[in-house]
Amino acid sequence: MKTVKIGLGTCGISAGGEKVYQAFQEELKQHPEAFVLTETGCVGMCYREVLVEVSNGDGSEHVYGDVTPERVGQIVKEDVLNGSTIDDWLVTDKSEKGFFENQKRIVLRNCGIIDPGDIEQYIARNGYQALKHVLTLMTPGEVIDEITKSGLRGRGGGGFPTGLKWKFTHDAPGEKKYVICNADEGDPGAFMDRSVLEGDPNTVLEGMIIAGYAIGADEGYIYCRAEYPKAIARLRQAIAQAKKRGFLGYNLFGTSFSFNVKIKEGAGAFVCGEETALIHSIEGKRGMPRFRPPFPAQSGLWGKPTNINNVETFANIPWIMLNGGDAYAAFGTENSKGTKVFAMAGKVKRSGLVEVPMGITINEIIFDICGGIVGDRKFKAVQMGGPSGGCIPADMCDIQIDYQQINKTGAIMGSGGLVVMDETTCMVDVAKFFLTFTQSESCGKCTFCRIGTKRMLEILERITDGQGSMEDLDNLEELSHQIGESSLCGLGQTAPNPVLTTLKHFRHEYEAHIIEKKCPAHVCSPLLTYTIDENCNGCTACARACPTDAITGEKKQLHVINQDACIKCGKCFTVCRFDAVIKD
Amino acid sequence: MNVNTKHDFKPFNVDLWKHDGQAGALIPLLQSAQDTYGYISEAAIDHISHITGVPAAEIYGVVTFYAQFRTKPLGKYVIKVCNGTACHVNNAKPIADAVTDELGITYDETTDDGDFSMLSVACVGCCSLAPVVVINDETYGRLTPAKTRKVLREYKREAKKTQQEKDA
Ligand SMILES: Cc1cc2nc3c(=O)[nH]c(=O)nc-3n(C[C@H](O)[C@H](O)[C@H](O)COP(=O)(O)O)c2cc1C
Ligand code: FES
């Protein structure tokens, strides 16, 4: 029997996946015996969603990309019923050259392959084998040693060695301990954790249970951001099924070890991704960070020793326990082992999710895997690490994915958001974007973080408005250092990074804004010239919207902007329904 | 005492707080209230304060700390403009300006007729379609200001139609 599998991760759904699914359901009504309809998570090719895989039942399969409900009828008729593929719509090795060959999939090993709503499919791919092995044959100390040997470091941004963290929590005195999975994924350009939770929730659960055994905890919490309803639904489903199959609950695999997991939904605060703030939030309080030490390993949730790891960190654990720490450490560089998942976004041709071995260069990811820059424009920089990270200019992108090499540029590995920027991106504007984010997410506890970021933002606004002075640049630098030094948590400590790195690598862009009053990337609207081109059909909307009456023209005739009267508010650009207003 | 009648208030999922430590249940309770009513009213805060024993002022502190909680109801159509990194570098700002211009509201505001609310969100998960706007559950990608206006006008027509049907 043939199987039709639809990609229904959030990316697939946004691209119209549910409508495609319904269209197949309709077809199924007419041809009830023709195929089985299932779903799967994100395979990483978000740029080709909606993806539909047709497998023939003999092990062979092929995938269609960019499927719309309108195309479903033809796929069923020609392919499913008659066995002839529609080659123009196929996703092939050739059409996606380099996308999969250069990846190494450990965390994403099941994503886009299994139906995440069916635990049996996870089990069929060695799921919960690692747990069984650990519980029946290993001591907690041996588990910790294996993780330490793998060289795995926390994937949530901090990069702390996971084995060592587990050891601290294991060694902390106390009967009651907790495991927390940090699924708050707050970086506004990142979606790795969401895709893993939606595409393979069981691997995260299995990782958590193994952690529970290693540190001596019998209870776990998953703190998932409320903006991820699909991920939360998947987790609930997985927990229920795992309980039924005896992977969660009491006396697992006939041992004395018991473990239960609860889900806590976040309520929308970036700072709650910080571990101490997250713990406060689970306890029902305002999610404000506190001073460390004591670290959560000593005193965490409800004051008990708590081990907190990121989703991707946990998703690595089952693979490591099955294949050995050495096999994991075989990938990567001297001090960065294994693989890392990146969420590719921005001006890159193939945006989506990739998992690469550490040690690959940034250029290889962007050009070999992701096909280069949209419109083959000039590659300018990548932003790594989101609001806590920094921009790495194109001419430095031959560095390897490695914690130390990335840190040297002023950026950080971060949690895996990788935003690609080309010549149409203004670096001052990018710095302003991230600072706007951190400024509004600052919890307000530390004065420098609360007010310092505000002052920095005002300076950046001044510069992008064309009112900046060179002195502003010195002030930005000074404020950056002060905020970094006098903030309690990572949010404030790293908030200046986007500004510092752009100042370091793209100072000339700041200077162009200040001295020449120009935005080289044509982004900052007060520094642009607005004109109207021949697309104008004289609807008069812009003339009516203009607050200074700078636009003149007869009805149904080309309109003109009087540059002397124009205050560059951009209103004409937004009201024009014919894309006739040009900014330069 | 029957706290519910005091505010003419239907109870929501109060069982929640029994399961956890008392304080830890505050956020799930608020989420449950918001799910039921669409926003968190003063009556809801009083009610939760009553059943948990947490002072209303403290609950208000929690409500205003988290972006998810609203103290006002939302419009019939909720327009979420994505301001994630990918959308930002792909020109989300002119899209937001177009929404503001078309509807006369900006972020966190609702039109007087209660039809539209405008919110800012960070990454709705289809960065490859940036810039993106989500209206209720429908995603609109690869937008330009002109396309955005067109979409919004359709919703306006629809809102008007349902209003007329209601009046009739
Ligand atoms: C402001 C701020 C936001 C953070 N957000 C997240 C997040 O969204 N997800 C995450 O896993 N870690 C986040 N972290 C890091 C956590 O504090 C913590 O280091 C991490 O969850 C530990 O897990 P790991 O060792 O597996 O990386 C954040 C830290 C800071 C300072
Ligand atoms: S940033 Fe807008 S969809 Fe991801």
Protein described:
The complex is a heterodimer of chains A (584) and B (168). Chain A is of the alpha/beta class and 584 residues long. Chain B contains 8 helices and 5 strands. Chain B has helices at 3-6, 16-19, 26-37, 42-52, 56-65, 85-89, 92-103, 145-167; strands at residues 77-82, 109-110, 116-121, 133-135, 138-140. In chain B, strand 2 (109-110) and strand 3 form a beta hairpin. In chain B, helix 7 runs parallel beside helix 8. Chains A and B meet through helix 1, strand 10, strand 14, helix 16 and helix 23 of A and helix 3, helix 5, helix 6, helix 7 and helix 8 of B. The complex binds flavin mononucleotide and FE2/S2 (inorganic) cluster.
Brief account:
The complex is a heterodimer of chains A (584) and B (168). By secondary structure, chain A is α/β, with parallel strands linked by helices.
Please give the share of residues in helix of chain B. Answer: 40-55%
Largest sheet of chain B: 5 strands, mixed
Provide the gyration radius of chain B in Å.
19 Å
What is the general shape of chain B?
globular
How is the quaternary structure best described? heterodimer
Please tell me what the overall shape of chain A is.
globular
What portion of residues of chain A belong to β-strands?
Answer: 5-15%
User: Low-confidence runs of chain A (pLDDT<50, min 5 residues)?
Assistant: none
According to DSSP, the number of beta strands of chain B is 5
Helical segment tally of chain B? 8
What is the largest interface, and how many residues per chain? A-B, 58 and 46 residues
What is the C-level CATH assignment of the largest domain in chain A?
A: Alpha Beta
Number of strands of chain A: 18
Mean pLDDT of chain B: 84
CATH topology of the largest domain in chain A: Rossmann fold
What is the structural class of chain B? Answer: alpha+beta
Give the class of chain A from helix and strand content and strand pairing.
Answer: alpha/beta
What CATH architecture label of the largest domain in chain A applies? Answer: 3-Layer(aba) Sandwich
